[in-house]
Design a protein that fits this description.
The chain is of the alpha+beta class and 453 residues long. The chain has 13 helices and 12 strands. Helix content is 49%, strand content 17%. It is globular.
Length: 453
């Protein structure tokens, strides 16, 4: 018995030591590997497309130097685009170009979504969330509280009070949460910094102060007074110059990225859709009675695809073929895995088509009481159901800034207020955690007359 104890202790020490160092190794290798993979992915979708042109004109350049030159050329192009965006004439050209893109059905959805995403991933100084104060707010009901961060104020049309835009953070990921508009009397300011809030939420409440200290009012971000500015500027003028130069390059790089990355992603998606659709029609060109030159294959295949889609669209508008389509979809719904794939793909196509004329309620931004009465938040109508008492509106209430997840709320039409923002502007408000939005939110009564009878 006496000799077994040291062996067990030694084995335990070895196992503990191995586990500790393996975990340390994982903590170093995994983030580094993900970072390298992300950098390589960004290179492949951007600067890698310039490498063939460099190889054509720079024959004597070593192969290992081509990716570096391609990246340098890409960054220079991004900087030039950003500089163009800061000039009045350049802004007008870019606005005209984006206006044209937003008139093309599928492209406007892809480009608009990627542009909004880039505005959040690489925000400018004016659009980045500026958390003004940490607060306690009633969540999910009036008898319990959650920690939130104030991002600004907003007033609903036809309301006298000025509400606080509160980002209620989730646990353990404080970068996600719910954006709610709280009346001031439901908000309790906390004397906690943003870093302390992040630490408390990330730990699930373990690293949380035992005594909460509340303040009497919402604090604003600190501003530099004249004395502070003079005290900083006199001994640190070179540092100030470096900050100005850094801001000069940063602003132009961010402006360039906001232009080029959405275009690159849009082209990639269109190329994928082209290969998925037109690429499948190209073999039919060989069946045509007349020869088609190689350079015209893509054009002819596109025309053939549009003609086929036009014929299918006319066919499903006829009563007989419409019933056949319903029977086909009914049969598809009975196949477990195929049914889910068909349903998701159909929803994606309907979203890209953005046919708002055929459905005046679906996708409509609305204001709903969440999480408790008197607190408002923005959701999107996804459909209408009915029970024995009348219509029930289904509302998707997304998280912020990750709008791909959220909760489904089901309520009566009289509990909703229509938000007169477009769906794009409402998404921008959520993606920016309330920063990119109007000071006064336009509203109107919920259109009960548009509900299906």
């Amino acid at each position: 018995m006496s000799t077994a104890t040291p062996k067990t202790t030694l084995t335990h020490r070895i196992r503990t030591s191995v586990q500790r160092y393996v975990i340390r190794g994982i903590a170093v290798v995994v983030p580094a590997g993900i970072t390298v993979y992300a950098v390589m992915f960004c290179y492949r979708i951007t600067a890698a497309h310039l490498a063939p042109f460099l190889r054509r004109f720079l024959v004597d350049v070593p192969e290992w130097l081509v990716p570096i030159l391609a990246m340098a050329l890409f960054l220079a192009g991004v900087f030039l685009l950003g500089s163009l965006a800061t000039v009045a004439v350049g802004r007008r050209i870019i606005e005209l170009f984006e206006w044209v893109l937003r008139k093309i059905p599928v492209i406007k959805s892809i480009y608009g979504a990627t542009r909004q995403l880039m505005e959040i991933v690489a925000p400018s100084d004016s659009s980045a969330p500026k958390y003004q104060s940490a607060v306690l707010v009633p969540f999910p009901e009036t008898r319990s509280y959650a920690i939130g961060l104030v991002t600004g104020t907003i007033r609903l049309e036809n309301e006298e009070i000025e509400r606080l835009k509160v980002f209620v953070v989730t646990t353990p990921n404080p970068t996600s949460g719910y954006l709610c508009f709280y009346p001031p009397d439901q908000v309790r300011p906390l004397q906690m910094s943003v870093d302390e809030v992040v630490e408390s939420v990330s730990s699930g409440g373990v690293l949380f102060p035992e005594e909460l200290v509340t303040s009497s009012r919402i604090s604003s971000p600190p501003e530099e007074n004249s004395e502070t500015r003079s005290a900083i500027s006199e001994p640190g003028e070179p540092e100030k110059g470096r900050k100005k130069r850094g801001g000069f390059f940063k602003t132009r790089f961010i402006s360039g990225l906001l232009l080029i990355v959405p275009l690159v992603i849009t082209v990639m998606v269109l190329e994928f859709l082209f290969n998925l659709t037109v690429g499948k029609v190209k073999p039919l060109i060989a069946l045509l009675p007349i020869p088609v030159p190689d350079w015209a294959h893509a054009i002819v295949a596109t025309v053939l695809l549009l003609a086929m889609l036009w014929v299918v669209g006319i066919a499903v508008s006829i009563f007989v073929f419409e019933k056949l389509l319903q029977g086909f979809e009914s049969a598809i719904q009975r196949i477990p895995l195929v049914a889910e794939v068909y349903k998701v793909s159909k929803q994606v196509v309907e979203a890209l088509a953005d046919d708002t004329k055929t459905d005046t309620v679906r996708k409509m931004p609305v204001l709903i009481d969440f999480p408790s009465p008197g607190v408002k938040g923005i959701g999107f109508v996804t459909g209408v159901s009915r029970d024995e008492h009348g219509p029930l509106v289904r509302v998707f209430y997304p998280t912020t800034p990750n709008i791909s997840v959220g909760i489904l709320l089901i309520t009566r039409p009289e509990n909703l207020v229509r938000c007169l923002l477009t769906a794009e502007d409402a998404l921008r408000l959520l993606l920016s955690v309330g920063v990119l939005g109007p000071d006064i939110l336009p509203t109107a009564p919920f259109p009960k007359s548009s509900l299906p009878m």
